[in-house]
């Protein structure tokens, strides 16, 4: 059973361990391979496996005005890391003080204070310390001093291109949620709370849940998507609209989901949307009747597309 805890200098070191370190936004297939390999090394060495990650994401602290949207908010990220099965997920608070530490200070004050490292596993592009002055070679040199080895894990490639959070964010921003899901190893998820919206969907005979979501999480490009909606009552196929509906240009941007086959009151409920594929872009219609017919076509298409799909399982 994986334990999740927050690093504190007041807590005694966790003991001998293989430690995988990274920001791990998205917990994509490359991150998963790195963590699993670190767990394999730990089993062979007979020591614990620890995943060390940082919250907030370092980019949010270092570049607050230009930080990219998150693929996974903090709770989702730690849950995904824990689901991989390490002995512990250790969250280190990232702030200006930690950012200012030299590589040596990071090693002594954080890494070696958290546990007794046997092996440290990082991505081959890993940077750490003030102004990103440390790299894998720096960490290997520090390991030689402090008694641990370092593995610079090769980055995973897909279609000849390295899998990175940056690449996945770009795909999502384009609306390419299906290719993004391949790199994530699961659909991209956005969680929201159902609030009162414009009521247009209900008037058209296709009621929608208006989702208030975390604005720091990456949202796909405007369009209509096939998705799975997960809530306490179960999992439902969903037709999801992202952005400003072109037929209502004065409406605010919104994330709205029609849950196929659901009949009930969703106001105040938390709904997770797992994006499967983009159906079409937002486009205007000549009349409400034409819009209603198009929505009906979208819903029928999505219902057929996801009829036997298991990709939204959790």
Give a written overview of the molecule.
The longest helix has 18 residues, at 288-305. It is built from ten helices and 14 strands. The strands form three sheets. It has a six-stranded parallel β-sheet with strand order 1-4-3-2-5-6, sandwiched between helices. Helix 5 (103-114) packs across helix 6 (136-146) and helix 7 runs antiparallel to helix 8 (177-184). It has two domains: 3-162, Rossmann fold (3-Layer(aba) Sandwich), CATH 3.40.50.620; 188-305, Elongation Factor Tu (Ef-tu), domain 3 (Beta Barrel). With 314 residues, it is an alpha/beta fold. Helix content is 32%, strand content 29%. The chain has helices at 29-45, 58-62, 74-83, 96-99, 103-114, 136-146, 165-174, 177-184, 200-203, 288-305; strands at residues 3-6, 16-21, 48-55, 88-93, 116-123, 149-153, 157-158, 161-162, 188-195, 209-213, 223-231, 234-243, 254-259, 270-280. Helix 1 links the parallel strand 2 and strand 3.
Largest sheet: 6 strands, parallel
State the CATH class of the largest domain. Answer: Alpha Beta
Number of helices: 10
CATH architecture of the largest domain: 3-Layer(aba) Sandwich
Look at the structure and give the mean pLDDT.
93
Gap between N and C termini, in Å? Answer: 18 Å
Q: Could you tell me the number of beta strands?
A: 14
Radius of gyration using CA atoms only: 22 Å
Number of domains: 2
Instruction: Tell me the strand percentage band.
Output: 25-35%
- The unreliable regions are none
CATH homologous superfamily caption of the largest domain = HUPs
**What class would the helix/strand composition place it in?**
alpha/beta
Q: Kindly identify the CATH topology of the largest domain.
A: Rossmann fold
Enumerate the strands of the largest sheet in spatial order, edge to edge or round the barrel.
Answer: 1-4-3-2-5-6
Following the backbone from N to C, one meets helices and strands in this order, namely: EEHEHHEHHEHEEEHHEHEEEEEH
The proportion of residues forming helix, as a percent range, comes to 25-40%
């Amino acid at each position: 059973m994986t334990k999740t805890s927050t690093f504190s200098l007041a807590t005694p070191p966790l003991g001998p361990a293989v430690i995988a370190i990274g920001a791990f936004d998205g917990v994509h297939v490359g991150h998963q391979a790195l963590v699993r390999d670190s767990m394999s090394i730990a089993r062979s060495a007979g020591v614990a496996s620890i995943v060390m990650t940082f919250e907030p994401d370092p980019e949010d602290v270092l570049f607050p005005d230009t930080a990219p949207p998150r693929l996974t908010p903090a709770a989702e990220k730690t849950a995904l890391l824990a689901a991989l099965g390490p002995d512990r997920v250790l969250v280190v608070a990232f702030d200006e003080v930690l950012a200012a530490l030299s590589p040596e200070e990071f090693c002594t004050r954080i890494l070696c204070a958290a546990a007794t490292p046997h092996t440290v596993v990082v991505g081959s592009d890993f940077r750490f310390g003030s102004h990103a002055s440390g790299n894998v070679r720096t960490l290997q040199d520090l390991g030689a001093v402090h008694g641990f080895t370092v593995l610079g894990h090769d980055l995973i490639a897909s279609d000849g291109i390295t899998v990175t959070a940056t690449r996945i964010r770009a795909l999502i921003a384009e609306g390419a949620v299906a290719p993004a899901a391949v790199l994530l190893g699961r659909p991209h998820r956005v969680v929201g709370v159902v609030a009162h919206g414009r009521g247009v969907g209900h008037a058209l005979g296709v009621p929608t849940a208006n989702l208030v979501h975390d604005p720091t999480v990456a949202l796909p490009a405007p369009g209509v998507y096939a998705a799975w909606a997960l809530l306490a009552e179960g999992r439902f196929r969903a037709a999801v609209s992202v952005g400003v509906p072109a037929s209502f240009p004065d409406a605010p941007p919104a994330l709205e989901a029609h849950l196929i086959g659901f009949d009930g009151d969703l106001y105040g409920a938390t709904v997770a949307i797992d994006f499967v594929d983009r159906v079409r872009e937002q486009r205007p219609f000549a009349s409400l009747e034409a819009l209603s017919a198009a929505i009906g076509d979208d819903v029928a298409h999505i219902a057929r597309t996801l009829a036997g799909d298991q990709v939204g399982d959790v």
